[in-house]
Amino acid sequence: MKTRNISGRILQAAVALALAAGAAGAHADATLDKIKERGTVTIGVLANGGVFGSIDPATQQLVGWNPDLARELAKGLGVKAELVQVQTATRTQFLISGKVDLLIASMELNPERAEILGYAPTPFFRVGGAAATRKDSGIAKWEDLRGKPVCVSQGSSFARPLQADYGAVVKGYKSSSDSLLALRGGQCVAAVHDSTLIHPLLRTNPEWADYHAPIATEVLPANSVVWTRKGEADTIAAVDKVIQGWHRSGWLIATEKRLDIQPPQPLLQELHDKYKQGS
Q: Mind telling me which residue stretches traverse the membrane in this protein (predicted)?
């Protein structure tokens, strides 16, 4: 089963859900009012292992960049946080169907997503795709993937450029963990996922000592944003105000350092300087 076909069906289902949701709530953004009334915001987070999101084995709590941002966002909105773990292939449906109010789920901005979802315009990170491959694979540039099997998560935005621009034979898996397991099992020559997943994994996990990320550039770099349902202007404004406050105070830079995210993301310093000057 090819990722593009899966992604197409996911997108079609999401569009249908978005149209239904839009018809039901075209005249007002009631989400922010409901959040305030409940005193809780439900946020979908992606926890696929590593510093950007994982489950602490001692506490069974979601920890890392995405969960930390979700909890701090709830604090900024003046409510409690309820975190819901989502998967790459189903995170959009969770938001549109109302299972969660917001998404902080390693889900970068692109035109297809912006067609069916709303989002807070101020980004909190920038991410592209990095390729993990065996050190003896001979892969040195994206073009070396032509005609070769490459593993991705189902619904990954990297599938299209890998196929269209570099001629890779894309194989979709339910999660990034399944994709990386397939790489180790020899089912593909590379696994392409967010650089924020690949680099920490290869840098800190001795089980991956025979693998590296040899391609210097990232595929499809894009801004990471908080996602809402379409047309929720009040929610978007409230969320964006909180994110701008993070940049102004330097909280995102401090969180990046605390979690030892490497390499540092230059966008965070750029936006800190921008909003600090505007304060």
A: none
Token pair belonging to 222: 């894009």
Element (H, E) at 117: strand 117-119
CA distance 70 to 74: 6
Q: Which of 181, 91, 190 is nearest to 146 (CA)?
A: 190
Contacts of 239 (CB under 8 A, 6+ apart): 73, 77, 102, 120, 226, 228
pLDDT at 14 over 60: no
CB contact at 8 A, 216 and 224:
no
In order of their start, the domains of the chain are: 3-124+225-266 (3.40.190.10), 127-221 (3.40.190.10)
- 213: which 2 tokens? 């990320």
